[in-house]
Write a structure and sequence with these properties.
Layout (H helix, E strand, L loop, with lengths): L2 E4 L8 H14 L5 E5 L4 H5 L11 H6 L4 H4 L1 E2 L5 E3 L8 H5 L3 H4 L1 H6 L9 E5 L5 H9 L2 E7 L2 H16 L1 H4 L5 E6 L6 H13 L14 H5 L7 H4 L4 H15 L4
Parallel strand pairs: 1-5, 1-6, 2-4, 2-5, 6-7
Antiparallel strand pairs: 3-4
């Protein structure tokens, strides 16, 4: 079982889109992935059609009442297993703090045999708080989407600094991949951001795959569909299929 956290401290970079289509791409490989929605906005849960009315029916209760993940997991129409998010997740930093037992709670739960039959993809909130730290401590790989603009790159550099600071805790370098999204070869800024990424991060930690700007990627969440089901022949489907292939080939998914 591989655990992938999708995180950037800048919103609007394609984080949920990436989590959604990683899950869908893994499902296409006959795997049964588990989605864990740690964003209080719960957009990923909504796309899968899982919208718990009560916080107690979401991953919130896992953190507050230590309810087993299996008790709050639902199977979406696409076949993906979903631990849904809820707006009340925004309260957890104040309620729980950031002690070691708190930030490793998800890691401990996911290490229980049989808790997840396949890969796990965690959609993080864009803040380095108790939720994102749980994802980082639990994961085997952090995927950092970087949309082709300067503010997104700055957010990714903040993530890099945070991950480097945690190396003393992990006593190893946490595997990571920076993914360029919303790339448009016709725009000068896209090429400039790509060049800056090559200077800011280790070359082997930048995905070869780039996610091109694509209408289908923007439209599919509104239809509660991943891009493979919404537009299987689109550029977006091609790019995310290539991303999944790249991660699987590298042994990261």
């Amino acid at each position: 079982m591989t655990v992938i956290a999708v995180f950037n401290q800048k919103g609007g970079v394609g984080k949920t889109t990436t989590a959604l289509n990683l899950l869908a791409g893994l499902a296409q490989r006959k795997q049964r992935p588990l989605a864990i929605d740690l964003d209080p906005q719960a957009h990923l849960s909504g796309i899968f059609g899982v919208r718990p009315r009560l916080a107690d029916d979401s991953v919130y209760s896992f953190f507050v009442r230590q309810r087993p993940l299996a008790d709050i997991t639902e199977i979406a129409a696409s076949g993906v297993m979903v631990c849904p998010g809820h707006l009340d997740l925004s309260k957890l930093d104040t309620m729980l703090g950031k002690g070691v037992n708190v930030v490793t709670r998800l890691r401990t739960a996911l290490r229980v045999p049989g808790v997840a039959p396949g890969p796990v993809v965690i959609d993080c909130c864009p803040l380095l708080g108790v939720l994102s730290l749980n994802a980082i401590f639990a994961c085997d790989l952090v995927v950092i989407p970087v949309s082709a603009d300067y503010l997104a790159l700055q957010g990714a550099q903040q993530v890099e600094r945070a991950l480097n600071a945690l190396e003393t805790v992990f006593k190893a370098r946490l595997p990571r991949r920076y993914l360029l999204t919303r790339f448009d070869a016709r725009r000068k800024m896209s090429s400039e951001v790509a060049d800056l990424m090559a200077m800011a991060f280790r070359p082997e930690e930048i995905c070869v795959t780039r996610i091109a700007e694509n209408v289908s990627l923007a439209e599919s969440p509104a239809r509660q569909l991943d891009v493979f089901r919404y537009a299987p022949t689109s550029t977006g489907a091609r790019d995310y299929r290539a991303l999944v292939d790249e991660l699987v080939t590298a042994g990261l998914a």
